[in-house]
Amino acid sequence: MPDRAPQPVDRQLPTDEARDLISLVRDIAQREIAPKAAEEEDAGRFPREVFTLLSESGLLGLPYDSEYGGGDQPYEVYLQALEELAAVRLTVGLGVSVHTLASYALATYGTKQQQVEHLPAMLGGGLLGAYCLSEPASGSDAASLRTKAVRDGDDWEITGTKAWITHGGIADFYTVMARTGEEGPRGITAFLVPGDAEGLSAAAPEKKMGMKGSPTAQVHFDGVRVPDERRIGDEGQGFAIALSALDSGRLGIAACAIGVAQAALDEAVTYATERRQFGKPIADFQGLRFMLADMATQIEAGRALYLAAARLRDAGRPFAKQAAMAKLHCTDTAMKVTTDAVQILGGYGYTADFPAERYMREAKVLQIVEGTNQIQRMVIARHLAGPEGR
After folding, report:
1. Which residues pair with 201 in a beta bridge?
2. Which pTM was predicted?
3. Catalytic residue among 41, 229, 370, 388
């Protein structure tokens, strides 16, 4: 039978440098990540050494300024690198996206002195970040967060609990949103908290349906003291910083979702062209061929949507609506495509001997993180029809 194994995605990249970058990402993904992905996910092992390698290779700060150790890459390129990583192991792709999200506040709103002091280590010094907005009682309603930061001379004392924190307990730094003033969004301030700060601790990681290799945990702040020099932006500006970060972060989730969906499609195509029933490959049956065609079409549409939003961002134009659309469509697509991939593999798709079931379990969380898809629909509708209850 002729080899019909899927080929790498034919990407539209703006420069030769970008093409070389994506080739480097693919090489690292196939050589260092893919061989151990299934085994380590099953064992719940976080691949810290992979993140060290990515940092050493200049891949943990791609969209940020090279003056501070970043890669000077447009989001259009950064997101396609994320997609390549997520297609091999979502724990890694999502981990890079979360690290980029955690670095955003300082890279975008920090003072020059703060950026010079902290960003080189954050972007290229082997550190790993976490983003702390959600709490046990405030998820979608993030403006109601209760973690407090109280001024004490030149320091702040942070007390409270954050929830659903990717890299909770293993991060080297935490970008933390805490209440410093009035109720509501105007009373929230952002802080950069070291991972080894006294009074900071993490609960045992959550026992999750998928992404078992990526620790997600509550993080407790018991009178954690940070100097005012680690406050990011103005007092009361934290919620605006958080929302701005999430607009970009949603594009990262969209790219990761397309990576997972592409991996599931590739698995389904390979299986369908090799599996024979009734004397011919099952890929010859029209019903299945139509499934593959629909899967591929939705993936291409999702990729185009997140890249269109990224190009708006790169051009300095508003992109919040498009980011919400990309996150919504791409993650719903990932859930549908991975479910269909399991169906195409039949009984084999339901076993851990094939990766399709892992892709399906991992896709689900992407419809939830960084704003549920119900929240994305609310965001999109507000752009179309204005705020609710006017």
Report:
1. 220
2. 0.96
3. 370
